[in-house]
Amino acid sequence: MSYALGSRWTALAVLSATGLMTILDGSIVTVAMPAIQGDLGFSAAGLSWIVNAYLIPFGGLLLLAGRLGDLIGRRTMFLAGNAVFTAASLLAGAASDPGMLIAARFLQGVGSALASAVVLGILVTLFTDPVERGKAIAIFSFTGAAGASIGQVLGGLLTDALSWPWIFFINVPIGVVTIASALRVLPADRGIGLSGGADVAGAVLVTAGLMLGIYTVVQVEEHGWSSGHTLGLGAVSLVLLAAFVARQATAATPLMPLRILRSRNVAGANLAQMLALSGMFAFQVLVALYMQRVLGYGALETGLAMLPAALLIGSISLFASARLSARFGARAVLMTGLALLVTAMLLLTRVTPDAGYVTHLLPPMILIAGGGLVLPALAALGMSGARESDAGLASGLFNTTQQVGMAIGVAVLSTMAASRTGELLAAGAGEAAALTGGYRLAFAIAAGLLTAAFAVALLVLRRPAHEAPASDAPAVERPAGVTS
């Protein structure tokens, strides 16, 4: 598809605005939860559903939404998702009771899934030149880091200066402008038609399996890993997902053609991403909790304290990642970034109940900038082995493993931290020391997850075709949309 250079970069700005809004919504709500609880009367247990009601449909629907984008058109899916998300944000801000807010958050998750699932698919078809594609992915990754940092600070400012509904109302003008701009600048695509892959049974199996699996994971902290609730629902989720895989092997028009997983880079990058984000997202959540519960930081103070990490991640992804990937290859850049992240987590295993910010927290904040290398490299490698007709599916799969990785990371690491804290309290430790011991264990596990991601990058991933010498080209994979 021919598309003018200026128009492509304008389209990237529209896609990045949606990425910013999605990430912003995920981080902005965390600092406003106490105010929401006070106004709407959430119970302590029910409060977690402000996050969970968004996470479950977001992670569960991404794969289906990505494939539907291939079938009915990615632009259509992108517009529909933004419309649902914007309307749901308005509903969330107007919520007058817990049920209304939870329902609105669920719809926000649906809208985010519909729009986010096709963003990378649109991006890789717009930018077929490897250098331009690397720059575009770096810019898109930067908006994610910016959204995380802005959300933590903006959430505190809006809640303190106005009131918590404004953390949702702020999405409405962004959504309206994004939809209007998308109608003008995104290229129309017809899709391959519903007859090309409308696997209803497969859609039901994978969506139910993923949503039930994510629900089980986010409830682990309440029920425990060995409870009947966790084991029973986990087993049902695995059965549903196994049935989905079996269905895809035999269906005439599969929702997710298993051929996409034959690509080492697609399969390997998704596995590495799940492991890496399980550890990286734990940094964002657990360091924030450590600052507030152990060191006594306020919500706005915590957001400001974490700004160096977010700004470094964003700056490196925007200004350095694409250049380094062009020179050394995405795989080498990925492994370097993962090594920096492992080192950051190992440093965090040494925090104390009276840690100083400059001496104990700032060094890992600087090293966590490796995330600015990891995220764009994973995106480039994850899309490098997909056919152009499967770009929406590959994008949906990549976003699915991202959300599942974050959900699993938070559930596993927070549960392990809480368990260790309980053991230390029972042994007579003070509250601050016990909490610190729990977080230190979680950071050690995060370092292990990131090390596993490094091993996958080393043993599974291969250089994309455009990075290889000419003599190597037949042995490696060609990026979607790149022709010889």
Write structural notes for this entry:
One of its GO terms (molecular function) is transmembrane transporter activity. The protein has helices spanning 5-28, 33-40, 44-47, 49-72, 74-93, 98-126, 130-161, 166-169, 171-185, 200-218, 220-223, 228-250, 264-293, 299-305, 307-319, 321-328, 330-348, 357-367, 371-384, 391-426, 431-459. It contains 21 helices and no strands. It is mainly alpha-helical and 484 residues long. The longest helix is centred in the C-terminal third of the chain and has 36 residues, at 391-426. It folds into 2 domains: 5-198 and 253-475, Up-down Bundle (Growth Hormone, Chain: A), CATH 1.20.1250.20; 199-252. Helices cover 77% and strands 0% of the residues.
Short description:
By secondary structure, the protein is an all-alpha fold.
Low-confidence stretches: 469-484
- How far the N terminus sits from the C terminus, by CA atoms, comes to 16 Å
Q: How much of the residues is beta strand, in percent? A: under 5%
Largest sheet: none
Shape: globular
**Count of alpha and pi helical runs:** 21
The chain-level mean pLDDT equals 78
CATH fold label of the largest domain = Growth Hormone, Chain: A
CATH level-1 class of the largest domain: Mainly Alpha
CATH level-four homologous superfamily name of the largest domain: MFS general substrate transporter like domains
Based on secondary structure, the structural category is mainly alpha
Element-by-element helix/strand order: HHHHHHHHHHHHHHHHHHHHH
- Cα Rg: 21 Å
Number of domains: 2
Helix content: over 70%
Give me the count of strands.
0
The CATH architecture of the largest domain would be Up-down Bundle
